[in-house]
Specification:
This is PAS domain-containing protein. It is a single chain. The chain has 219 residues and is of the alpha+beta class. Strand 5 and strand 6 form a beta hairpin. Helix 1 crosses helix 6. Strands 1-4-5-6-2-3 form a 6-stranded antiparallel sheet. The relative contact order is 0.20. The chain is 33% helix and 21% strand. The chain has a single domain, classed as Beta-Lactamase.
Protein backbone atom coordinates (compact mmCIF):
# COMPACT_ATOMS: atom_id res chain seq x y z
CA UNK A 1 0.00 0.00 0.00
CA UNK A 2 1.57 3.27 -1.13
CA UNK A 3 1.26 6.65 0.53
CA UNK A 4 -1.49 8.99 -0.73
CA UNK A 5 -0.51 11.85 -3.08
CA UNK A 6 0.47 15.12 -1.44
CA UNK A 7 -0.32 18.73 -2.12
CA UNK A 8 2.47 20.81 -3.69
CA UNK A 9 4.91 22.14 -1.10
CA UNK A 10 6.11 25.75 -1.03
CA UNK A 11 9.12 26.83 0.99
CA UNK A 12 8.21 29.61 3.45
CA UNK A 13 9.63 33.02 2.60
CA UNK A 14 10.76 35.47 5.26
CA UNK A 15 7.62 37.50 4.57
CA UNK A 16 5.34 34.50 5.07
CA UNK A 17 7.19 33.57 8.26
CA UNK A 18 6.75 37.10 9.62
CA UNK A 19 3.04 37.15 8.72
CA UNK A 20 2.44 33.81 10.45
CA UNK A 21 4.52 34.82 13.48
CA UNK A 22 2.64 38.12 13.73
CA UNK A 23 -0.68 36.25 13.81
CA UNK A 24 0.66 34.21 16.73
CA UNK A 25 2.06 37.27 18.49
CA UNK A 26 -1.28 39.07 18.11
CA UNK A 27 -2.85 36.63 20.58
CA UNK A 28 -2.49 37.01 24.34
CA UNK A 29 -3.05 33.30 24.93
CA UNK A 30 -5.11 31.16 22.52
CA UNK A 31 -4.46 31.89 18.85
CA UNK A 32 -7.82 32.17 16.98
CA UNK A 33 -8.85 29.18 14.88
CA UNK A 34 -8.84 31.18 11.64
CA UNK A 35 -5.23 32.27 12.25
CA UNK A 36 -4.26 28.69 13.07
CA UNK A 37 -5.81 27.37 9.84
CA UNK A 38 -4.14 30.13 7.81
CA UNK A 39 -0.72 28.81 8.85
CA UNK A 40 -1.54 25.26 7.74
CA UNK A 41 -4.50 22.91 7.64
CA UNK A 42 -2.42 20.44 9.63
CA UNK A 43 -2.29 22.74 12.67
CA UNK A 44 -4.77 21.93 15.44
CA UNK A 45 -3.91 24.46 18.14
CA UNK A 46 -1.46 27.22 19.05
CA UNK A 47 -1.47 28.90 22.47
CA UNK A 48 0.83 30.97 24.64
CA UNK A 49 1.40 29.62 28.15
CA UNK A 50 1.68 32.72 30.36
CA UNK A 51 2.25 33.11 34.09
CA UNK A 52 1.14 30.09 36.11
CA UNK A 53 -0.81 28.47 33.24
CA UNK A 54 -0.11 24.78 32.71
CA UNK A 55 -0.12 22.13 29.99
CA UNK A 56 -1.85 18.77 30.30
CA UNK A 57 0.84 16.46 28.90
CA UNK A 58 3.00 15.02 31.69
CA UNK A 59 6.36 15.40 29.95
CA UNK A 60 5.61 18.89 28.69
CA UNK A 61 4.38 19.90 32.16
CA UNK A 62 7.66 18.62 33.64
CA UNK A 63 9.63 20.63 31.12
CA UNK A 64 7.60 23.78 31.78
CA UNK A 65 8.11 23.47 35.55
CA UNK A 66 11.83 22.90 35.03
CA UNK A 67 12.09 25.97 32.78
CA UNK A 68 10.18 28.14 35.26
CA UNK A 69 12.36 26.96 38.12
CA UNK A 70 15.52 27.93 36.26
CA UNK A 71 14.02 31.29 35.37
CA UNK A 72 13.40 32.39 38.95
CA UNK A 73 15.43 35.53 39.53
CA UNK A 74 16.33 35.92 35.86
CA UNK A 75 15.23 38.81 33.65
CA UNK A 76 11.59 38.32 32.58
CA UNK A 77 11.74 34.82 34.09
CA UNK A 78 13.70 33.48 31.11
CA UNK A 79 16.50 31.04 32.07
CA UNK A 80 20.02 31.31 30.75
CA UNK A 81 20.97 28.70 28.17
CA UNK A 82 24.02 27.89 30.31
CA UNK A 83 21.77 26.82 33.19
CA UNK A 84 20.28 23.84 31.34
CA UNK A 85 21.74 20.51 32.46
CA UNK A 86 20.85 17.37 30.53
CA UNK A 87 20.97 15.29 33.72
CA UNK A 88 18.02 17.27 35.07
CA UNK A 89 16.01 16.53 31.92
CA UNK A 90 16.14 12.72 32.06
CA UNK A 91 12.34 12.29 32.57
CA UNK A 92 11.73 13.90 29.15
CA UNK A 93 15.11 13.58 27.45
CA UNK A 94 14.04 11.45 24.46
CA UNK A 95 11.31 13.99 23.69
CA UNK A 96 13.52 17.07 23.86
CA UNK A 97 14.95 19.14 21.03
CA UNK A 98 17.50 21.87 21.65
CA UNK A 99 18.02 24.48 18.94
CA UNK A 100 20.52 27.30 18.46
CA UNK A 101 18.81 30.42 17.12
CA UNK A 102 20.06 31.74 13.78
CA UNK A 103 19.14 34.74 11.60
CA UNK A 104 17.47 36.56 14.52
CA UNK A 105 14.85 33.87 14.93
CA UNK A 106 14.11 33.23 11.26
CA UNK A 107 15.94 29.92 11.45
CA UNK A 108 17.48 27.60 14.03
CA UNK A 109 19.87 24.66 14.08
CA UNK A 110 19.14 21.42 15.89
CA UNK A 111 21.79 21.04 18.59
CA UNK A 112 19.96 18.00 19.96
CA UNK A 113 17.15 15.97 18.40
CA UNK A 114 15.55 13.60 20.92
CA UNK A 115 15.81 9.88 20.23
CA UNK A 116 12.08 9.25 20.69
CA UNK A 117 11.25 12.11 18.33
CA UNK A 118 13.74 10.80 15.76
CA UNK A 119 12.30 7.29 16.00
CA UNK A 120 8.80 8.53 15.22
CA UNK A 121 9.86 11.16 12.68
CA UNK A 122 12.05 8.73 10.72
CA UNK A 123 15.39 10.52 11.07
CA UNK A 124 17.70 12.28 13.51
CA UNK A 125 18.04 15.91 12.37
CA UNK A 126 20.82 16.91 14.77
CA UNK A 127 23.09 19.48 13.09
CA UNK A 128 20.53 20.51 10.48
CA UNK A 129 18.84 23.89 10.13
CA UNK A 130 15.05 23.87 10.43
CA UNK A 131 14.94 25.37 6.92
CA UNK A 132 17.13 22.56 5.58
CA UNK A 133 14.95 19.92 7.19
CA UNK A 134 11.89 21.55 5.62
CA UNK A 135 13.37 21.37 2.13
CA UNK A 136 14.02 17.66 2.57
CA UNK A 137 10.77 16.63 4.27
CA UNK A 138 8.46 19.12 2.49
CA UNK A 139 6.14 18.73 5.46
CA UNK A 140 3.07 21.02 5.60
CA UNK A 141 4.11 21.89 9.17
CA UNK A 142 7.23 23.74 7.98
CA UNK A 143 5.67 27.21 8.30
CA UNK A 144 4.36 26.33 11.77
CA UNK A 145 7.88 25.43 12.89
CA UNK A 146 9.50 28.55 11.45
CA UNK A 147 6.80 30.98 12.62
CA UNK A 148 6.52 29.42 16.06
CA UNK A 149 10.24 29.70 16.70
CA UNK A 150 10.32 33.30 15.47
CA UNK A 151 7.33 34.21 17.67
CA UNK A 152 8.98 32.72 20.78
CA UNK A 153 12.26 34.44 19.92
CA UNK A 154 10.43 37.77 19.83
CA UNK A 155 8.08 37.39 22.82
CA UNK A 156 10.34 35.26 25.05
CA UNK A 157 7.39 33.26 26.40
CA UNK A 158 6.42 29.55 26.30
CA UNK A 159 4.32 28.53 23.30
CA UNK A 160 2.26 25.33 22.93
CA UNK A 161 1.38 23.89 19.52
CA UNK A 162 -0.38 20.77 18.27
CA UNK A 163 -0.43 19.59 14.67
CA UNK A 164 -1.26 16.49 12.66
CA UNK A 165 1.57 14.61 10.97
CA UNK A 166 1.84 13.83 7.25
CA UNK A 167 0.95 10.22 6.34
CA UNK A 168 4.58 9.09 6.06
CA UNK A 169 5.23 9.71 9.79
CA UNK A 170 4.30 6.97 12.28
CA UNK A 171 3.12 9.49 14.90
CA UNK A 172 -0.39 10.70 14.06
CA UNK A 173 0.17 14.09 15.71
CA UNK A 174 2.64 16.08 17.78
CA UNK A 175 2.25 18.31 20.83
CA UNK A 176 5.12 20.73 21.32
CA UNK A 177 6.18 23.22 23.96
CA UNK A 178 8.70 25.84 22.82
CA UNK A 179 10.70 27.51 25.61
CA UNK A 180 13.16 30.40 25.13
CA UNK A 181 16.65 30.40 26.64
CA UNK A 182 18.76 33.55 26.90
CA UNK A 183 22.40 34.60 26.99
CA UNK A 184 23.84 36.85 29.72
CA UNK A 185 22.66 39.90 27.76
CA UNK A 186 19.04 38.73 27.89
CA UNK A 187 18.85 37.81 24.19
CA UNK A 188 17.13 34.62 23.09
CA UNK A 189 19.92 32.43 21.74
CA UNK A 190 18.52 28.93 22.17
CA UNK A 191 15.18 27.13 22.22
CA UNK A 192 14.30 24.20 24.47
CA UNK A 193 11.48 22.25 22.84
CA UNK A 194 9.44 19.36 24.21
CA UNK A 195 7.93 17.26 21.42
CA UNK A 196 5.50 14.47 22.34
CA UNK A 197 3.95 12.12 19.78
CA UNK A 198 0.21 11.43 19.86
CA UNK A 199 -1.25 8.21 18.45
CA UNK A 200 0.48 5.66 16.25
CA UNK A 201 0.22 5.00 12.54
CA UNK A 202 1.37 1.54 11.44
CA UNK A 203 3.46 1.90 8.27
CA UNK A 204 4.04 -1.00 5.91
CA UNK A 205 7.55 -2.02 4.84
CA UNK A 206 6.88 -0.34 1.49
CA UNK A 207 5.82 2.89 3.18
CA UNK A 208 8.86 2.88 5.46
CA UNK A 209 11.12 2.40 2.44
CA UNK A 210 9.43 5.33 0.68
CA UNK A 211 9.76 7.41 3.84
CA UNK A 212 13.49 6.75 4.06
CA UNK A 213 14.03 7.58 0.39
CA UNK A 214 12.32 10.88 1.07
CA UNK A 215 14.23 11.68 4.26
CA UNK A 216 17.67 10.53 3.08
CA UNK A 217 18.02 11.70 -0.53
CA UNK A 218 21.78 11.92 -0.09
CA UNK A 219 22.09 8.14 0.53
Amino acid sequence: MSLPPERPWTEPTDDSIVAAADSILAAREEVPAESVRAISECVVRIAWVPGSASVSDEKLAFLLDYWRGLGEGQKDGVPLAAQVDGIDLVPALGNIMLLDVEREGFDARYRLYGTKVASKAGRDWTGWLVSEMGRVTRTPATLLYRAGYLAVYRRMMPLFTEHNSPPWVSAEAWRRLILPLADDQGRCTRLLVGNVDIGHRLLTAEQIEAQQRRLRPED
